[in-house]
Amino acid sequence: MEGKDDNSNNNKSGNGKPKKYEVPGWTEKTIHPIVEESAFATLFPKYREKYLMEVWPLVKKELESYGIHGDLDLSEGSMTVKTSRKTSDPYCIMKARDLIRLLARGVPYSQALKIFNDDVNCDIIKIGGFVRNKERFVKRRSRLIGPNGTTLKAIELLTNTYIMVQGTTVTAMGTFDGLTWVRKIAEDCMKNLHPVYAIKELMVRRELAKDPTLAGEDWSRFLPKYKRRQIKKKKAKEQQQQAPPRPAQPQTQTQQKPNEGSQEGSGNNVEEKTQPQQFQPQRQNYGNNNFNNRNATPDNKKRLSRREKEKRYTPFPPEPTPRIIDKQLASGEYFLSENKREARERTKKQQEKEMRNLPKHEEKQRKIEKSYTAPEEQVRGPLYNHNSSPSNTKSTKDTIHSIKSNLSNMTTKRKSPSNPEDFVLSKKKKE
């Protein structure tokens, strides 16, 4: 019992109060080397190779101050960090791992070096898997950046972070609260929710944080609430077109009831009664009967044609489109060998080519044949003039007779006398 009282008295100061626990300081004697070696490696893209070669001496010098070795392998395109016997802080290897990740994602060295501060952390958000369409992905990523980077700068100021969008990742540096907000905004933007709504909420929260009376209250009543509405264009047009018709106004109607006797009698009375016309809803007929209506306006015809084009509901699913193997089985091509199939495709292509070139070939053949055809001869004379009418032309018998008479006259004129005496006498008669 006496020993226990002595120990209790030693832990008390002269005033009788317990002594404060003093944390021993870090000295060279108290530092113990790390038993196991830890190493981390990361790959970097080729366009970062030139920048990393320039900055790596500075990175290596900074890592050595924490007792960490850093290696840059250009052949494999990787950076490696690992602990050594001089490493005093065991968590520094985690900070060094984040440093090489930030450098690989395009963060400059001066900004990436701030990761060694105790209140700074980093988060690399992958946004490539949210959207399949490339054009839509680029559009939503540019929406996150904003015109001239204004949206990104507003998020940085409200969350006290550093953000860099590179490729399919968003790199952020800052406190844990800021990083959670940045991740939420980036993922919502990829899900087609504009970042301006989150910016408005952050601005309201920033103003509410200045009021100390609202520190323990719920802020949900002050925050803006947005309803997500997404109406398709087709549905909106259908709602406008299918608006209910206006009810017809009641009209007064006069009815005349003559008596059964002759109309000339004085006993005929004309009764006038006003009866309200009963409302009958107009049926909207979307069938083909509306097209036969002559009074239908062109605008109504266009609307009806659009409605007709739309597919009507059927309980049966559509027929599946045939596969390539189904088409081959139907044509019998599936059971052919590869050589026969190739020969068949070759002949098919050749036939298609010939059919395409057939009009050109026919036109070329016509030009060649035209060059060999003889021109039409223009024969003179009434006998061979085919254009002349039969009334103007002589008959064949008359023409033959005229030719014979001409020939006989020519023979008589050119006949020479047989006797010389006759020849002399004829000369004398002429003289």
Topology:
Blueprint: H1 2-10, E1 39-43, H2 49-65, E2 68-73, E3 78-83, H3 92-104, H4 109-112, E4 121-126, H5 134-145, H6 150-159, E5 162-166, E6 169-174, H7 176-190, H8 195-209, H9 233-241, H10 289-292, H11 298-309, H12 324-331, H13 338-372, H14 396-414, H15 420-430
Antiparallel strand pairs: 1-3, 2-3, 4-6, 5-6
Explain this structure.
The structure is a single chain. The chain is mainly α and 431 residues long. Helices cover 45% and strands 8% of the residues. The strands form two sheets. It has a three-stranded antiparallel β-sheet. Strands 4-6-5 form a three-stranded antiparallel β-sheet, covered by helices on one side. Strand 2 and strand 3 form a beta hairpin. The radius of gyration is 55 Å and the shape is elongated. The relative contact order is 0.04. The N terminus is likely disordered.
Instruction: Work out the helicity level.
Output: 40-55%
Q: For the CA atoms, what is the radius of gyration?
A: 55 Å
Helices, by number, come to 15
Order of helices and strands: HEHEEHHEHHEEHHHHHHHHH
Strand percentage, roughly?
5-15%
The total beta strand count reads: 6
Task: Tell me the distance between the termini.
Answer: 205 Å
Overall pLDDT level: 76
Spatial arrangement of strands, main beta sheet = 1-3-2
The main sheet comes to: 3 strands, antiparallel
Provide the low-confidence segments as ranges: 1-5, 251-295, 383-393
In terms of structural class, how would the helical and strand content be classed? mainly alpha
Overall body shape? elongated
